[in-house]
Structure formats: structure tokens, C-alpha cells
Amino acid sequence: MRFTPKTFLLIVLATVVAGLSGCGKAQPTVAGLSPSEKAEDAARANGFTPVDLDAFIEQERAAVQELDGKKVIRMAVPVSFEARLKRHPEQKELSYIYTALGMSGISPLPEVEHRMFVESAEGQIIPVYVEKQAAAKITKELPEETSARFLGYHAYSYDKGPAILVVDCIPLTGAGKDER
Predict the structure, then answer these.
(1) The CA-based dihedral angle spanning residues 144, 130, 162, 94, taken in that order and rounded to the nearest 10 degrees
(2) Which CATH class is domain 36-171?
């Protein structure tokens, strides 16, 4: 195959840029990162944007108030947040999450039969939806009162704040309760 000089230059340039950015290579971990920072980095590497849960709750409550308390569909935006598990996932009949995900164009729809409660750093407790496999993992691996970085999709907002579908978690401490 023969390349024109311009095409060859573009290939070389793309290779250099990819090499400088680390594209296609495992990134070295930075020594000295806290478990929280490591979990945030892992979430970000998987496409989940870290949010401060307290600020996020206030932001989404304000957005709903601007619309006279109506729910706001958020197109299943991937987010991650740090919180303390207050109550393990409990099976519950849930329907609106399917409406919101369907309006976001998600297909096929995940199995969502569980809800749990998490607590923010400032003590705000909110319910979150939990995908079936994540519910099993959290129940098995994460004791109540333990902090974790939760990965999920912001499906909609309502008067209590963001409605998030949790799909995974990264524990921030070993087994057992943690101290904040």
C-alpha cells in the first residue's frame, strides 16, 4: 500500500499523539492516592462523571422547582458519587424508572426491581434505584453504613433530587463499617 506524503504525515502524527496520551495502554497508578481518589479515577476511566452528591441533590431540586415540581428527564447521564449505604437494596415494584429510561432511548431496558437508600457527606439521605446484578453485589459485598463510590445513570429528577439507577459500586474501605 502506498501513502501520499500528507497521509503518511497524518498517520505519524496520530501515532505520536496516541503515544503521548497513553491511548491503548494501561495507565500507571499514582502512588499515594486515597481509596476515594482511586475509586473516582476508576469510575472516570469507565465513563462515569464524578459528582458531589450534596451539590448534585441541591442542583436537581432547584431544576425541578423551576418547573413547578414537574419531573425532569435526564437522558440517563452516567455519573458516580460517594455515599454511605444506609439500607441494603430491597425489592419493590418500580415503574417510573422504566418510563424515564425508555424516553432516554435505552434499549434493552435493564432489570430494575430494587431500591436502596444512601447518605451523602452532609447527611442527606436519598433513595436510588438498583439494577438487579448490582443489587446482588451490593447485598453480598457492601455492609450497611459502609461508604462506596456508586456508579449509575441519572435518569430523571424530582422534588427529592436526582433519581439515579445504580449499576455498580466500588467500596472505599475493607469489610465492616467505616468512619466519616
Answers:
(1) -120
(2) mainly beta
